[in-house]
Each structure stands twice: as C-alpha cells, then as structure tokens.
Design a protein that fits this description.
Elements lengths: L1 H17 L17 E9 L10 E5 L4 E4 L9 H4 L5 E8 L5 E7 L11 E7 L5 E7 H4 L6 E12 L4 E10 L5 E6 L12 E4 L7 E9 L2 E8 L6 E6 L8 E2 L12 E7 L6 E7 L4 E7 L6 E2 L5 E2 L4 E9 H11 L19 E9 L4 E8 L9 E7 L6 E8 H4 L8 E10 L2 E10 L2 E7 L7 E2 L21 E4 L6 E5 L5 E4 L13 E2 L9 E8 L2 E8 L8 E7 L7 E9 L11 E7 L6 E8 L15 E8 L20
Parallel strand pairs: 3-20
Antiparallel strand pairs: 1-2, 1-21, 2-3, 4-5, 5-6, 6-7, 8-9, 9-10, 10-11, 12-13, 13-14, 14-15, 16-17, 17-18, 18-19, 22-23, 23-24, 24-25, 26-27, 27-28, 28-29, 30-31, 31-32, 32-33, 34-35, 35-36, 36-37, 38-39, 39-40
Amino acid sequence: MQLNRIYYFLTLIIFSLSGSSSLAQSYKSGPAEKDFVAYLFTYFKGNVVQDEAVCYAISTDGYNFKALNNNHPILSSDKISSTGGVRDPHILRGENGKFYMVLTDMTSSKGWDSNRAMVLLKSDDLINWTHSVINIQKRFQGNEELKRVWAPQTIFDSSVGKYMVYWSMQHGNGPDIIYYAYANSDFTDFEGEPKVLFNPKNGKSCIDGDIVNKNGLYYMFYKTEGHGNGIKLAITDSLTSGKWIEQPGYKQQTRDAVEGSSVFKLNHSDKYILMYDVYGKGKYQFCESIDLDKFKVIDHNITMDFHPRHGTIIPISRDELIGLTSKWGLPAGIEIPKAVNPVLKGFYADPDVLYSNKTKKYYLYPTSDGFDGWGGYYFKTFSSDNLKDWKDEGVILDLKKDVSWADRNAWAPTITEIKVKGQYKYYYYFTAAQKIGVAVSDNPTGPFKDSGKPLIDFKPEGIRGGQEIDPAVFNDPKSGKSYLYWGNGYLAVAELNKDMISIKKETMKVITPSDGTFREGIYVIYRNGIYYFLWSEDDTRSENYRVRYGTSRSAYGPIEIKADNLILSKDSSQGIYGTGHNSVLQIPGKDEWYIVYHRFNYPNGINMGDAAGFNREVCIDRMYFDSDGNILPVKPTHQGIND
C-alpha cells in the first residue's frame, strides 16, 4: 500500500504545481449521485401573470410527480423579477453543494418580444433563495435592437471551473441565437459580455437550449424556432469551441408543436428521460433513452397532479426531500425513505464518533473522501440527535489555511472531550502528510486551533516500515490517564501529558497484535474491566478490508488474540465490501454499543478498482457482546440502525 500511496502523492504534487481549477480547491458538500432517492421538478403553469411563477413538484421514482405547496408558487415573482413574471425555470445542483436557478424575466401579457432580462438565483437548501436581475440591454452596450431574452440555463464548465449561463436572444429581425456568459463567483452577474455559443449552420433561429454532459461530451437539445418541426441535437467536446456536430432528424416523438425540452438521468440507472412541453395541448411528453440518440415515448408510465410548462428536474437526497416537504407539506402518495446506511451524504471514511456531554449530541469526525489518491486537505464534522439524521456542520480544520506544517493528505481523525477547570475542551488528533497533529477547541464543532507542530513525526525505536497515521485517543476510566495510539503496519501507544497536546515519550511502547493481521485504524474501548482493541486488516482498497479485535487487562497491552476475532467483514450477498476503519460508540449510561465504519460506496465501489479505496461511505450498525464479554460478529447492513 505504501508504494501505491507514494505514487499518488507524487501525482498530486505534480498536479498542484501545474495549477488546478477553482473546483479542485473548493470544499465538497452535499450528496453524491449514490445518495439520490427522489426528484425535484421546477416549472411554471401558464400565460397569465399569476401562473408565471416558480412551482415545485416531487417524485420518488422519476415517473409519478406530486405538486408541492398545493401547486402554488414557492417564490414571489414580484419580488425577484423586473417584469412581475418569470418563466422557464432551470435548476442546477452546483459542484459546491449550492443550487442555482435561472429564469426568463417576462410576463407574456406584455408581448413575446417584451423582455430584456433574466433572473439569477442561488440557494443552499432549495428553500431560501437570493436573487439578482441582469438586464442585457442595460448591462451591455450594442444591444439597442435586442427584442427578447429567453430560457436561460446553467452548466458547470469544468475546463475553466466556472458556471456558464446560456440563453437565446433575438436582435432586430435577425434569428434567435444561443449566447453564453460566465457567472461571477456570487452568481449575481456576468464576468463579461455575452458571446455566441451556438448558431446552426443553416443560420436560422434556435431557442430553448438544454445541455447534458455524458461521458465527456456535451449534448445540446434545442428547438428550431419559426421553421422545422421541433427539437434537434448538437454535440461537442468543448463548450466554447464553436465546433458543434449537428445531428440529423428531430428528437421529439410527436407531430405536435413542442418546446422547452429538458433531459434528466434516472437515479441509479443508465436511462435518461427527455421531456418537453407540448404547449398547444397543455401537456408534457416523456421519452426514454440510453444513448441520447434514440428515444421512445413512456407517457403511459407518467402521472402528474398538475399541468407544468417549460421546467426542469434534478435528483435530490433524502435530507433534501425532508427539507422540502417540511416546508411545503408531504403530498398524498409520497413516502419519505427511511434513514439508512450510509449515514453521511457524499464520500467520507475513517469515522470517529463522539457523544458530547456539553451539547448532548452525537458527532462524527471523518476523513473527507472522494479525492484521488487520498488527497483531501480538510476535515468536517456532522452532528445528530438520533444517530440517523446527520447535519453537516462544515469544515472545522483546513490544512491549507489552519496548519503551518502540512497541507495535504488529511486523514483519519480522532477526538476526545475533557473537562478543564470546569469547562469542556475538545482535543482533535489528525493525520496530515503522514504525521499526526492536534488541534483544540471549546466546542465540538470548532473552530479548532492547531498546536503549531506535529505531535507524532517519528517512528518508535525498532520500527522501520509503516506510517505515522491513524491516531486514536482513549481516556482510561480505570487510571484516569489519557493515551494516544497510532500506526500503520505497527501499533504504538504513549501516555498524553496533562495538556493533551504532547506525549510522555518515555511511556511510548509498541504493542502490535501478534497474529500478523494488524494494518491500521486502531480503536480502544473499555467494558466491564476489559480493554478492547479493534483494528483493520488488509488494504482499504481491498474488498476484504475488515475489522478484528483483541483484549487486554491493561491499556498498554499485551493484546490477547482469540481464534474467532473477526467481527466485521464484507457481505457479498448484499453487495457490501471493504468494511473497516471503525470507531465505537457507547450510549451514555447504557450497555448499548454501535460500530461506526466505512465501506466501499454502494453499489458502484466494487467496480471501481483502486478508486474504491478513496470513494468510501460511512455506516453505523449495532454491536453486541455475549455473556462472556466476547464481541459478536457484526452483520453489515443497508438498513443501519432502523432494524
């Protein structure tokens, strides 16, 4: 594992020297594709002013949709627009955990050539939105003959790390052309003047562009305006190159007039849905495709208790679904999925768990995962009242900003709560650049202040290999002392000084389990006079990564190994692999225990090769002891502690 990690470190260093996009430097937040359980449909309703407003609907299967808020608007058009009406809502989940929505600033009561502006909105939660209006004619010179600004949409351009807004405009008697501009970092304005994104070779009008990124290619569906018969497709591998390959034929599956096409991908599927507004008949049509070329009508599978106009659909997580329905009510026929494993949305690993006596809440402290080669550089924490629903409390320590002695490879933290002079303090031990540091805070959510130097940056005497990683802190209820354990390839322990930010070097001892299974990820608990040592075996990239344990009568060992000490391992029948690097939680005052661990992300991890080892997810399952004090094997589950 060490050689492969060194390779990854070298590639990361080269990458950092060559520069990176703003995306690479941003904190990851929110769910990943694996976490999506439902869909949000944004739409408007019609051509009267009261219907030219943003409405929401939800679905748990992508086929059957129910309106939220009794089909009433979720935003006031009067407050966010310059015309009193908005149309054509396009919603995008950002790369940074935020949401972006763009709207045509227009009411049809003033005429189809009456609008010159669009509305830009940004949100953290799909409920509260900030807004700004961009009037193209007033904002940019040379638009005196501008007649209309229609159907804006947004896409993240990874080549420049920016959000591109694109829309169609008509000047004078010329054709409608699709333009673009990059939004500023606040998503309140454009960085520069609009430029042409797409103009078909025939030089005729095109509107309602909708771009989908599939396997590195950009597929743009657009409507031919004033000629032809509907929705066409053009493809490029570079958004701003001007090199679009226009595909033959039309993609809608009806002879009726259509507009406002939009494509979304079904959750956990290779199928895409193309939907469009059959505006002359007041209905939507849904079509299905795998290759985004050939489509078949699936209207027989679709139900809606509302009549949408020109809208878009994005996938959402369970937490987001709960947030929306808590605000606007749960429609009849919609069921909220139970909280299940994984318990954190996104990619996280190496979880350490804490119950805070100060706040009476539970906290998880994981490695921020999903970075190639374990290349994360910041730590987050998550809080919960019930061990099922977890709130992202944000970044608590950023190596690049908060730590002077290391700026890479933020791994495997551990934390403890200590009362100092009547006040709780939190000591957070973490791995950075293959060294172990410590940071301190007055609160479990930080901010944490680094001690200013590594705590462990050396090997114990006699140790030649391995890494100084994976700390675990343990407060011994028997002696009242605190200990720090660490190691990869070996297991070391040392007593912490009273300040909790330094060790007594003379107490350092190597206590590696004797059965040859110890790899990393130590964790220590105490129950009924027995010290339990839990550790991970094998490589985190291996489907056979797993947890074993041993016992001792002392926090210093020696560790007694039992023949049947494997307590957590893969379950291929459930598609669960790579279960390891755990911590353990005891419910205060009870003999009730839970094991918190990471696994390959489900269901894709097993097919990811080595990348499964840095795209992991955090789970919680119940842990039991038998009457003799042995830890019983834990069955990893998808259901988690709902069982």
